[in-house]
Structure formats: C-alpha cells, structure tokens
Amino acid sequence: MGDSRQAVLALIRRAVAAIPDDVDDRPVPRDYLESHVGDTPAAEVLDLLAENLADYRAIVHRTAPESLPALLARLLSERGARSVAVPAGLPSHWLAECAAEQLPDDGTLSAHQLDTIESVVTGCALAVAETGTIVLDAGPGQGRRLLTLVPDHHVCVVRADQVVASLPRALPLLDPARPQTWISGPSATSDIELDRVEGVHGPRTLEVVLVD
Predict the structure, then answer these.
(1) Residue 96's domain is classified under what CATH number?
(2) Nearest to 43 by CA among 173, 189, 165, 186
(3) What is the domain range of residue 171?
(4) pLDDT at residue 106 above 70?
C-alpha cells in the first residue's frame, strides 16, 4: 500500500511541476454555448420553464400580479392547510387573503415544529427554464433551507423577471457565498426496483406560481 501511495504522489508531483507559474493569471476560455434557446422571447422562456417544471411533477400555475393573493389563498385552502410557515421578507400582501394561521419564521422554529405545519410559501432567487430548476439562496422571502424541506407542501412564487434561460446565464447572478438550494420538482427517490417515492428528502408536493 505504501509503495502504491508513493507512486501515485510521484505522478501528481510530476504533473504539477509541468504547470507554468502564471497559470492562475490566464483567462479561462468560455466560448461554449450559453443557451440552447438563444435569445428566445421572454414569454417563450417562461413557457419552457412551466413545461419542464411540470415534467418533474411540480404543479404549475400562471397568474397576474394582482391575482396572486387570491390564488395563494385558494391553493392553501384546497390543500387543507391550517397553518403556513412564512419566511422573513415575504411580501405581506401575498397572504392577505389567506385563512390559514400564518407562522412567521424568525429562525427559532424547530424541525419538530415545522413538521406540524402543513405548508410553506416562499419566493425564490431565480429559476432556470432549460432545466426546470428553482434556486433559493435564503434571501428575503425565501427563508432557511429547513423551512422549505420539512413542511410537506411548498408553494414557490417565481416572477417572470427572475427566469433565465440556462445555467450559464444563472450562475453569474448568484452569490456563491450564500446557502443555495436547487429544486427541480418535489422531493423524490427510487429504490433498487425503481419504485418512485416522493417526500423523503423534502416536500411531497411542490406548487410553483409563475407571475407574469
């Protein structure tokens, strides 16, 4: 084992020695394709996001800004939610018509407490159309990661101006120092026989409201 380790380390030292000292100062070529949809109109990019989210078994809704409070109230009512977790910074008018008890999260709600709450409503940092992905980074209206992983029902509001076409266009907009959660549909896993089970690592139901 010792001889093998030394042999591997020798190969690494030889490879590293051949790297020029100024390699860190050389620009990295980024001439790859940034998006498969190019400069597609924003409305079509939004349609692509809706299609891919639905393909991942998220439930997608479309609404105008003025209709958002009524829609959120209806979704929570249809779910039978008696309580809803509310992250700090969520616009207050979003849940103005909600009948469920609103439980603001100030960082003290435990996992046990969150497990008794039926639903959570959040915003997002951005969404990626080509991959059907929503990104949360704990910013205003998004809350802690725990807040969106424990309740069984997550309603996420995505504004049209938060949607980008592709991952290469999304990454420069994100702060790598922030805690990020990347979501593509409800939590799901499969066993060795490929039986799909939802709700193991996060919410069993993901509803996405696209506001355009």
Answers:
(1) 3.40.50.10420
(2) 165
(3) 36-211
(4) yes
